[in-house]
Design a protein that fits this description.
Layout (H helix, E strand, L loop, with lengths): L9 E3 L14 H10 L2 E8 L5 E3 L6 H4 L10 H4 L16 H8 L5 E5 L5 H15 L6 E5 L2 H9 L6 E5 L5 H4 L4 H8 L4 H4 L3 E5 L6 H8 L3 E7 L2 H7 L5 E4 L8
Helix pairs in contact: 5-6
Length: about 250
C-alpha cells in the first residue's frame, strides 16, 4: 500500500543550505524541497498567543539572534523577525502559513516539539489539530513526547502519529531526564497509551530491540538525520525512508 510520507526522501527542516542563505524551516528551504520533489520535515513551537510557529529551538538566539523563548513572544512579532543569515530576509512562518505554501505539493512530516508543561502541550496540540483539519495533502505528525501524541488525539487529530526515538544514551540530548523515563522511552513502553502508528528513529539506534520488533510487526520506520550517501545506504537496510540534510540523496 502506498504511504506518501515514506515514498520520497524527507528533507530535514526543508532543503536548507546556510552557505547559500537558505535557512532551516524557512519559506525558501521548503520551496527548494518542493522544486526537487522531496518530502519536508518541519518543527513546531508554541507562541505566547497560542500560535503554532515553524521553528526548531525553544529559544530564539541561534536562529534569529534574539534572547528569550519562542513561548514568550507573540506570533505577530515572530513572523516579522528575520532568520539570521537568510539571503531573502525569510522570517519564521506560522504553521497555517506553511501549510498554505506547501498546499499538498509534497508530503509533510510535522514534528511537534516537547513543551514545558501540560497546559502548553494541550495548547500546541489543539492548534496543530485545528490547522490540519482541512488540509488537502499527505501529512503525518510526530513527536519525541508520548504525551504530545495523546494530546493530539484528544484534540481531534485523526491522522498518522509517529514517535521519535533514539538510544537515550546521549546526555547532551536528554539532560536531566530520569533513568526510568529514559528506559520507558528507549523501549517504547508507552505504546499502550501513545498508540503511535510509525517510528522516527535516530540512525545509530535502528538496532534497538523495540524498533526492530515494531518494524517486524509492520510499523513503518523513518531514520534521521542522514548526512551522506554512505549513511543513507546503511540506514535503508533497516528503515523504510530517510530524513536527510547536507547531501543529495537522488545523486548517482
Amino acid at each position: 500500500m502506498a504511504n506518501p510520507p515514506f515514498d520520497r526522501p524527507i528533507a530535514h527542516r526543508g532543503l536548507h543550505d546556510k552557505g547559500r542563505g537558505i535557512i532551516e524551516n524557512s519559506h525558501s528551504a521548503f520551496a527548494a524541497a518542493i522544486e526537487r520533489g522531496f518530502g519536508i520535515e518541519c518543527d513546531l513551537q508554541l507562541s505566547a498567543d497560542g500560535e503554532a510557529i515553524v521553528f526548531h529551538d525553544n529559544n530564539l538566539e541561534r536562529l534569529v539572534g534574539r534572547t528569550g523563548l519562542v513561548r514568550s513572544r507573540l506570533s505577530d512579532e515572530l513572523i516579522v523577525t528575520p532568520l539570521t543569515g537568510s539571503s531573502t530576509a525569510d522570517c519564521p512562518q506560522t504553521f497555517e502559513q506553511m501549510l498554505a505554501q506547501i498546499a499538498g505539493a509534497v508530503p509533510l512530516v510535522v514534528e511537534v516539539k516537547h513543551q514545558a508543561n501540560a497546559i502548553d502541550t494541550d495548547a500546541l496540540a489543539s492548534r496543530v489539530a485545528e490547522c490540519v483539519r482541512g488540509y488537502q495533502g499527505p501529512l503525518v505528525v510526530k513527536s519525541f513526547d508520548p504525551h504530545m501524541l495523546i494530546a493530539l488525539r484528544n484534540a481531534g487529530y485523526s491522522g498518522l502519529l509517529g514517535i521519535i526515538t533514539y538510544g537515550y544514551d546521549k546526555p547532551e540530548w536528554y539532560g536531566d531526564m530520569p533513568a526510568r523515563t529514559r528506559f520507558v522511552l528507549r523501549h517504547l513502553l508507552h505504546y499502550p497509551r501513545s498508540r503511535f502508528n510509525f517510528i522516527s528513529c535516530e540512525r545509530s539506534a535502528l538496532g534497538l530491540p523495540a524498533v526492530r520488533l515494531f518494524k517486524a510487526l509492520g510499523f513503518r520506520v523513518m531514520s534521521w538525520t542522514i548526512r551522506s550517501r554512505g549513511e543513507a545506504a546503511e540506514a535503508r537496510q533497516h528503515a523504510d525512508q530517510i530524513v536527510f540534510e547536507g547531501f543529495d540523496p537522488d545523486a548517482r
